[in-house]
Amino acid sequence: MLLYLHIPFCDSKCHYCAFNSYTDRFHLKKEYMKALEKQLKFELEKNMGENQFLQTVFIGGGTPSTVKIEDYENIFKLINKYKTKDTEITTECNPNSASLKWLQGMKDYGVNRISFGVQSFDDNKLKKLNRAHNSKGAISAIQNASCIGFNRINCDIIYGVEGDSFDSLKDDFDTIFSLPINHISAYSLTLEEGTKFFNKSEIKIDDEELSYKIFNYLEENGFSQYEISNFSKTKDDESKHNFGYWQHKNYIGVGAGAVGCVNKVRYYPNKLIEKYISNPCEYEIEHLSDEDVIIEKVLLGLRCSNGFNINILDDNQKIKVKDLIENQKLIIKDDNIYNKNFLLADELALYILE
Description:
Layout: E1 2-7, H1 29-47, E2 56-61, H2 73-80, E3 88-93, H3 100-109, E4 113-119, H4 123-129, H5 135-148, E5 153-159, H6 166-177, E6 183-188, H7 208-220, E7 224-227, E8 230-232, H8 240-246, E9 251-254, E10 260-262, E11 265-269, H9 273-278, E12 283-287, H10 290-302, E13 308-309, H11 315-326, E14 330-333, E15 336-339, H12 345-353
Parallel strand pairs: 1-2, 1-9, 2-3, 3-4, 4-5, 5-6
Antiparallel strand pairs: 6-8, 7-8, 10-11, 11-12, 13-15, 14-15
Helix pairs in contact: 3-5, 6-7, 10-12, 11-12
């Protein structure tokens, strides 16, 4: 079982961000964490059988580092009942709020993987994105995490922003190579509804060639691509939590705006913080059909190195897959189908499933 915890507080709202997060609800933090604890206890008791343990835990947001380290104590007391020495526990954080005390506290609680929302080491680009930190602060926070003892550190980078070039992005990645980072999440900017960038098409660069240049440069410098936006130095450095999603494993979702999916039932807790606090165990339900699961396995499998088993497809779909294999678009090995080019994932999935 996987576990996701959502912390919906942020110091500032990034112009590209469509995640459920708030910059004006800080007075509700303590009440929110109590509600989070209540739902977490309910979900764990409901979904975790005897001798069943959490494979991964992921604390995301929002910005988890905007909540005081002390306010996580009861959350980790609950988690500790279901974790093992092999449980991957990740927290996201932002450089401006991930203080030395906060990082040390997370390490003491058992967090063994940390993900920094850096996005760029260019101060002008950070301002354009409305990030709350600068390059110097990002470098310092990453170095602090390493000094404390975190040896699995991810850095988020956004590319495809107005003004980006391969040379400017190369500077970002060269900075990463000089730091104790073994995982990179490099996301192409998307213009999502409800964000400040949504109606500003000029802010986004659509340049497939730029993506290929970035992928090749990361590969040349020891970071292997295992998903369309994720790169790691070694197999052990990959995100086990994300792989769980891509493999369609059951996951518990806790928090305002989280999503959970257990035994083909997907559920959505209240997004509005006040409503969530008043009833954290109330949510909308979506029942997935067998066809829904197959579609998601194909879509997700083609976006990462996990692939999918050909035997989940019907005869017509298998014919299309074999056609793609003959045209050297896909690879088959032991009945598993693998994609050679993750950027073509959606196009290939559409061809197979239509």
